[in-house]
Give the backbone structure.
Amino acid sequence: MELVPSIGLPVASSIDATSTNTGWKMPVNHTSAFSLGATKLPDEFDSDTMQEVRSDLADNGVSAPDDDDQSDLAAIVADARAQGIDLSIVVMHGNPGHDSELRDLATEVAGFQHGTVAVFSDDWIGTASDSISRVHLEWAEDKAKFKEGDSEEAAQILVHRLEQTPTMSWTGITSVLLTVLVLTIGGLYWIKSRRENTPVAAGTPAAPAAEEPAPR
């Protein structure tokens, strides 16, 4: 870290912008500088690998290990783009240490690849998009996970759901309504209890006793 002489604030130098997880240097940009949390890419995605991903995506929108046949995935990407979804697909073998690493990788790829990026491991999916909401992306991911490395099936399911409008979960709606009802009843009970237990304020005149009837 260096200090700005005039104000004494630390600024990042080029040698500080080193990824502790991948071992490669990356220049600080607006996205990484203001990120709410540190990102972690899968271990095998270093600077050289990311350059390969970038080059591989350029021809057919698919980046996969060298021994994988990309033709089916490329057809899925082409179909998605024909339907208005600017999709790019990255495939890795196995699973990373945590599923959030796939979303971090998708976000990293989205820094140079516009549209919607989907990263597939054997069981998980990570996505990033500049046109599709996070809610819609995660709704589309749900049914496409855990396909045991069948990235073509997972990608087809993902695209099919991205073309749809997320349906409302009646179970979720019912749960919310029940929660609101319970909270409302509890609130009313609490207000009633406070009123019953509130003492009469000091200085408040007592109610006059009822007069006895005069004898006849």
